[in-house]
Structures are given as C-alpha cells and as structure tokens.
Amino acid sequence: MDILSFPLICPDWNADEEMLLLEGIEMYGMGNWAEVAEHVGTKTKEVCIEHYRNAYLNSPCFPLPDMTHVVGKNRKELLAMAKGHLEDKKGELPVKEESPFSPSRVKIEDSYKNGPLGRLPSASNTGTTDIKNASNMVQVKDQPDSLKLDDHLSGRSFGSKKPKSADDEGPSLLEFSGYNTKRQEFDPEYDNDAEQLLADMEFKETDTQEERELKLRVLHIYSKRLDERKRRKDFILERNLLHPSPFEEELSREEKDLCRRYDVFMRFHSKEEHEELLKTVVSEHRILKRIRELKEARAAGCRSSGEADRYLEQKRKREAEDSGHRKESSQAGPSSQESLNVPVSSDSLNTYSNTTSVGHANSSSLTDLDFVPLSGADLLSESEKQLCREIRLPAPHYLRMMEFMTIQMMSGNINQKSDAYSFFQIEPTKIDRVYDMLLKKGMVQQ
Q1: What is the mean pLDDT of the chain?
Q2: Cis ω on the peptide bond leading into residue 103 (within 30° of 0)?
C-alpha cells in the first residue's frame, strides 16, 4: 500500500487529502462544502474552500494546481520538507512568531493524541484506507472571504436548521395554498395533470412523418399549458395574493364577501386600479346600508338622526339578546324552544291549544309566562304593555309586528286589517289589536 502522507501542493495539505478533496467535489458537487469537508475528514469547510480557491482556482496553471516546487523531488525529499515545516511550526508558535505558512490568525490544533508520529486512517470512495501522517492538522481560518465564497457557491446549509421567520408562525395563506417559498412552486400545481399527456410519448426512428408531426403538436400543447401555469403563478405572486390584504383586514365579514365577488375582474385591472374599485364598492355598500337603516328608523317614527341612531342601537341590542335567548333555548332542548321571529306560529302563543306533544310543551311553557319583562319591554308604553298582557304577545314579537306592519303600510301593501292576515300566522284578533294600536299612535294614516 502506498503511503501518501506527504505534502504535494502546499505544506499543510498531504497528497491523500488532495485526493479526498477532489473526490468529495466530484461526489457532492462544488457547493456542498460541508459534505466535502466531512469526506476529507481532517479539514473544516472553510479550510477546504480556501485551499481550493488558492491552489486550484487562482493557480497560474488553471485548472491544474501549480506543481513547479515539487517537480523532480522524490518521496523522501517531500517527507523531509514536511518534517522541517512541522518543526518550524513547533519552534515558532510558542514565541508567537508568524511563519509564511502559519499566519497569526490561523489556529492550529493537534487532533492526534498518540504523539507527533501517529497515524490517522481515512476512507476513500473505493473503501480502501489510507494512512496519514501526524502532520495533518485541523486548521480553522476565520476569514470573511471564505464565507463569502461559500455563500456564493451554495445556497444550502447542512447540519443546522435555519430559524423560522415570522411568516412561518401559525397557519397562513401560504400553508393553505400549498405554496413552497423555497422551491417557488405550488403543491399541487395548476393543471397538475399536464405532464401525463406526454409521459409515455417517445420519438422513434420508425415514426412516420404524420406521427412525428402529431407528437410535435402534443409538445406544443404541453408548452402552452405550462405557459398558462406560469402566468397564473406569476399573477398570484405579483399581486401578493398569498398574504392578507391590509385594506380588507379592517372590513366586516359582509364587506369581505362583497370584495370576493369582484375578484373575477382582477385580471383586467392593475393592482392599484382593482384596489380603488374595491374601495369604491365598499363605500357604496356602506352608504346604501346607511340609507336603508335611516328609512327603517323613519318608518319606526324617528324624526332626527339622533333618534335614528338610538333606535338602531336598541335594535342591535335586541337582536343580540334574541340571538342569545335562541341559543340558550336550543341548548336546553326541543321542548323549551320558542321562536322570536315573524311569522309567529299560533301554536306557540295559544295556551290552550291541543296539538302535538312538542307543540303542547311549547304552549304549556308559555302558560305562566309574563310577557312584559322580556327584552324590549322597556321600549313600550303602558298602553302597549297592557295590550301585550291582554293578547299574550311577547314584547319582541310586538315590536317586530309593529315594525313590519309600518313598513308594509308605507309601501302600500297593507291598506286594511285583512291585508295583514297573510303576513302573520297568528290569530286575526291579535293582528287587529296591533293594527288598532298603530292607528291610535298616529304612526300611519287610515
């Protein structure tokens, strides 16, 4: 077995290490210096980068290293040179003197504990083991040029995990969309089955001219599908659709749903034009909603904006309370459910009705109920409270009937008592009493 533990290109690198360096680059590629250094075994990643740059890339005999200083010398002379170089290092390091091959910024560590003449085995790609001299030292050079070269040659890192960015914390649109930021690809891609069209296709020498033209046509179609895939991906990345829009973060759920309906027009506008369109649509929606609320408040008897705001605020509170009551009743069980929405069922209000068991449970649960203390009773006058007691009508139902009948009267859909019977599923006598109350309060003209 040949012993290659002698310096060849520079005093700090033996011939076997040079072979392992070149083998590692051939096996793992130029940028994977961590694997290359592990393959060498006695050198760090930075030392491997520095040596390859100085001895090979900057060599006057590029791409070969400069061998002029070792030409004509035999193994013994090279070993003597290595021994002399090692003795020079040992003599110079204690007094902190710099040598041509050992600058002060280089830290040399002896990785062998068996004395200066020990041996270290190293494996090659063929499975053989070479014996190395104790002059193999592990050098760690803290030079920014080496790190810059490493970053330039390789965008990947091995043996350590990169810290997660702020975008990786918690679920986001990136995770839901399946987009891989490092690969810049979606999983699955748009038109993900495009490759299946030509997966089994191959050009043969025996193909006829028609078959060849047909296959070329298939390739042309596939290219068009790839272009469409790239166009869509570029559109998503350029418009930043993988991240929530700052404009839509302050919108309500209803307004966000409205904006989603206009996404189909995004391809016809620039980013600024589409954002301006959404702002206009949301502004229009808010104005129309405000107009509807003011009309409703005016129909309820409000004559100023302050009264309208108070009425709308009380209405929202009633709706929130009604929603809470419905949720509680649904959790309590079907026997205790009661509907607070118009149209109102007569079975739920008639105390003495004999219907199904569920209807009977509903009616029996309302037998001893005082209708006035329910939510909304504070908005009624004494005469209205007395009316609700007499006809056994809950205050929220009464307010909703008043509101609904007032709007229908203003619209001309109710001109007499009988016209209102079709809108409610309760006794006509109760509807007549509510209609008379509306006339008595002067909210509508007969």
Answers
A1: 72
A2: no
